[in-house]
Design brief:
The protein has four helices and no strands. The chain is an all-alpha fold. It folds into two domains: 38 residues; 38 residues, no CATH class.
């Protein structure tokens, strides 16, 4: 996610009096961090796995194993240590 996408995501959910330009730097960082956390915690689709690998066509089993590793790395479904 780039900075323009972060700004657009904020403005899409904010009212006209609370747009990105009205936020202090701490609020901007907090929003960007929350978006990054949400996208990191998302479950990967087969298409996303293929895009990440950039090569070949992974089997269902390979996708399942990659997804397990991704979920473990991002503590999806459990608490962070």
């Amino acid at each position: 996610m780039n900075s323009q996408q972060i700004i657009e995501a904020w403005n899409a959910q904010a009212d006209q009096f609370n747009q990105w330009s009205e936020l202090c730097e701490d609020e901007k960082l907090e929003w960007a961090y929350s978006l990054a956390t949400q996208s990191a915690a998302a479950v990967l689709t087969n298409e996303q796995i293929q895009d990440l690998l950039g090569i070949g066509n992974p089997t269902e089993e390979e996708c399942r194993l990659i997804r397990l590793g991704w979920e473990a790395a991002n503590c999806i479904g459990g608490e962070k240590p």
